[in-house]
Amino acid sequence: MYLIEQKRLLERLRAVLQENYDIQAATLAIEQPPEIRFGEYALPLAFELARRLRKAPRKIAEEIVAALGEVPGFAGFEVAGAGYINARLDRPAAAQSLAAASTVSAPEHPIHALVEHTSINPNKAAHVGHLRNAILGDTFVRLLRAAGQQVAVQNYIDNTGVQVADVVVGLMHLEGLTLAGVQALMARLQQEQQRIDYYCWDLYARTSQWYEADPEQKQARKQLRLDTLHAIEHGGNDTAAIAELVSTAVLRRHLETMLRLGIEYDLLPRESEILHLHFWDAAFELMKAGGVLYLEAEGKNKGCWVMKRAGAEAVTDGPDEDAKVIVRSNGTVTYVGKDIAYHLWKFGLLGKDFGYRPFFEYPGHRCWITAETGDPDHPHFGGAQAIFNVIDSRQADPQANVIEALRGLGFTRQAANYTHFSYEMVALTPRCATELGYEVSAEDAARPYIEVSGRKGFGVKADDLIDRLIAATQAEVDSRHPELPLAEREDTARQIAVGALRYFMLKFTRNTVIAFDFKEALSFEGETGPYLQYAVVRTRSIFRKADTTPEQSLADIHGIDTAPFLNGEEGDSIWQVWLRAAKTTLLLEQCIETAEPSYLARHAFQLAQDFSNFYRKHHILTEANPDRKKLLLATAAVAQRELIRSLALLGITAPEVM
């Protein structure tokens, strides 16, 4: 509804400008008045035209209003202040339209999008920072699918990287284990119901500290790390077998952790296959043939294959000292080089493919993993038209260089459809760190946040966080609803905990550092997930007591004249709920266009606030006027419908009771 009226107004304005002033306007600004009593839209158009037409803005505004005439869906237009044009919707007609609106899925979009998110190194348990990535990525997938896009979800697994090598060093040299010993360790952990990802969390921190513990051994230990890394990359040896065994077990734990938050994947591409299937060799030939790479003959990068860094000017005198190294002088390929090869495959430009085998079963579909050879009946992967990579902002330079390589190879359309969906880190408040048992210095205690560090073992494990949130909400649910069966109370606590966590991670804009705090995340008041869930629970209570349904209430509005109840000051608080509810589709489009899910989170919170204000002011169940009561029930119904819709896009469900 909201979009239809807006589009009609814009079309009429463009026609007026063309007919009266011979002006073609591609874009026109639409603002919202400071108070709803002034109308639904405020148009600053006259101010923009004043210099061009050499007239006072108010005079231009008066001319435009006189020329607009009747616009379907609008009750009228008026000039305000020094030249604003206020537009008033036909509230009864708009409410009828919104009540009848369907929430079925959008028609299928021709774009095949690929979203990569989570991508945790499979060397230890997931932590609170990883949750921000996964929740952002999963929410964006939900937004794209709601808009009708075909979306494949990938979770890149760096199973041959230095972090995995560090855990292997710890197992082989700190713990003194062979391949058989590691197999026995994993069997014992499983028998004792201990978690491999938690075991590796501690081992990884110990190994990182071991490298630095003895200055005389530091160089030898770092060489051991490098030798271990090379053995893993090469494959076909016990060191690589240990890495495969442990990283696969940790990966399975990561998937189980994310599933607790409703997060699922379609494919797990692994770096080991990118190496062993020689993806880089194919990309290397393409880049050399396309002139993207060149062999540096002098300067600090002598003997390296390099490319011009993204955004840099071409150097014509001497070596480009700022060039991006893709292949080192010893022949090893950098992270960016392997990433370029991977993204050529994502776009279907490499001429090579993985093997695939089933890995993880979800309730509704199967997740596949890459392999050197695999199941011939696998689904098709890759060949995307648009790519979104959810990777933190510290990876901006590598991401920019992948895009630069695509452009250099002539794949300009693909480069334009490659989005680095960046975000800032998640840290801990000093209070949160203290609650977790960490020693916080006086200097750190005065800071707004403390950065987590996996190498130091400093942080919040994702599952510990989820468990703690569920335990806190379980106690609250048990005290409020002891009459409910235990299974129902547990499911209610889980829904509230997941809603609290997901909303906490989504309410901040992506470029904001999050300082995580248990007290704030667990709060049931203010801008929180539980506050939104409670608004839905309240609407359900209304319909139970009224002995009707939201669907019936929305249908009943078509048989009454709502104008006496929607117009005027008394009707503003009712109309505010309808107006806010009408914006959900607009917010969905804005979130996709800007890759910013926080806009929808904010919209859902504002809708819950508007409904709460409406609920306090209007006594729905005891309303004496039958027509007005139908409108009030329909208002609760439209709020419920759009709240549930918005929450679903955020990955949040509302329980029956709270």
Automatic annotation (TrEMBL):
Which residue range or ranges hold the Arginyl tRNA synthetase N-terminal domain? Answer: 7-89
Q: Which domain of life is it from?
A: Bacteria
Query: Which SUPFAM superfamilies does the protein's record reference?
Result: Anticodon-binding domain of a subclass of class I aminoacyl-tRNA synthetases, Arginyl-tRNA synthetase (ArgRS), N-terminal 'additional' domain, Nucleotidylyl transferase
Q: Which SMART domains match?
A: Arg_tRNA_synt_N, DALR_1
Answer whether the UniProt record assigns the keyword Protein biosynthesis to this protein.
Answer: yes
Q: Provide a Gene Ontology MF annotation, just one.
A: arginine-tRNA ligase activity
Q: Which reaction does it catalyse?
A: tRNA(Arg) + L-arginine + ATP = L-arginyl-tRNA(Arg) + AMP + diphosphate
Task: Extract one GO BP annotation from the record.
Answer: arginyl-tRNA aminoacylation
Output the InterPro entries linked to this UniProt entry: Arg-tRNA-ligase, Arg-tRNA-synth_N, Arg-tRNA-synth_N_sf, ArgRS_core, DALR_anticod-bd, Rossmann-like_a/b/a_fold, tRNAsynth_Ia_anticodon-bd
Its keywords, alphabetically, are: Aminoacyl-tRNA synthetase, ATP-binding, Ligase, Nucleotide-binding, Protein biosynthesis
Q: Give any Gene Ontology cellular component.
A: cytoplasm
DALR anticodon binding domain location is: 532-658
What Enzyme Commission number(s) appear in the record? 6.1.1.19
Family indicated by similarity: Belongs to the class-I aminoacyl-tRNA synthetase family.
Its name, as the record gives it, is arginine--tRNA ligase
| Native organism | Acidipila rosea
Q: What is the lineage of its organism?
A: Bacteria, Pseudomonadati, Acidobacteriota, Terriglobia, Terriglobales
